[in-house]
Amino acid sequence: MRKIGYVRVSSVDQNPARQLNQLNNIGMDSIFQEKISGATQERPELQSMLSSLEEGDTIFVTDLTRITRSTRDLFELVDEIKSKKANLRSLKDTWLDLSEDNPYSSFLMTVMGGVNQLERDLIRMRQREGIDLAKKEGKYKGRVKKYHGKHAGINYAVKLYNEGEMTVNQICEITSVSRSALYRMLRELKEEAQS
Fold it and tell me: Which pLDDT belongs to residue 57?
């Protein structure tokens, strides 16, 4: 009957301290944490935690968005946890109760999962509307390019490519520039030369 925490932040520059603090305040036997997008299926710490689950264990998260990113994902996760006779608790989503003592749990999960999905969809919609408006006003520049004409690594990669003495893999390894970035820059340079 262990208390297991799961902490996730979406990117390397985000800080998990708030989540860790909240979970440590209620006392955890162990905490699994990772810095990875919730949208990806590849979450090694989550998989490690799930495979180590024992009957009677309870997984604690600060809120469901840390452990799941869609309603379908939530239901699959809950099924796996229930199959191991374990529990899942969310500090924010206090309605969540996987025990059989609560006949409303399944219903509430469906409703709240739908509400979470709706909230994410609305955020994406507002982002798109904001970007469209910014484009119309000429204020939207798009994502800043990592590799631009003055980037030393990409320029060196292009130089090595043009010399023709190395393979693309060798060039990418030496310059730490990805293949796709190198090919994209070569295409851009070719288009500039043709225009």
Answer: 93
Beta strands at 87-90 and 58-61: parallel, antiparallel or unpaired:
parallel
Q: In angstroms, rounded to a whole number, what is the distance separating the alpha carbons of residues 79 and 76? A: 5
End-to-end CA separation in angstroms for the chain: 69
For 36-63, how does the pLDDT look when each residue is reduced to its tens digit (9 = 90+)? Answer: 876 666 789 999 999 999 999 999 999 8
* pTM for this prediction: 0.55
DSSP letter (8 states) at residue 174: H
**Dist CA 78 CA 192 (whole Å):** 53
Residues annotated catalytic, as ranges:
10
Q: Which stretches of the chain drop beneath a pLDDT of 50? A: none
Set out the domains of the chain in order of their start, with CATH numbers.
3-118 (3.40.50.1390), 152-194 (no CATH)
Alpha-carbon separation of residue 115 from 6, 64, 89 (angstroms): 22, 12, 18
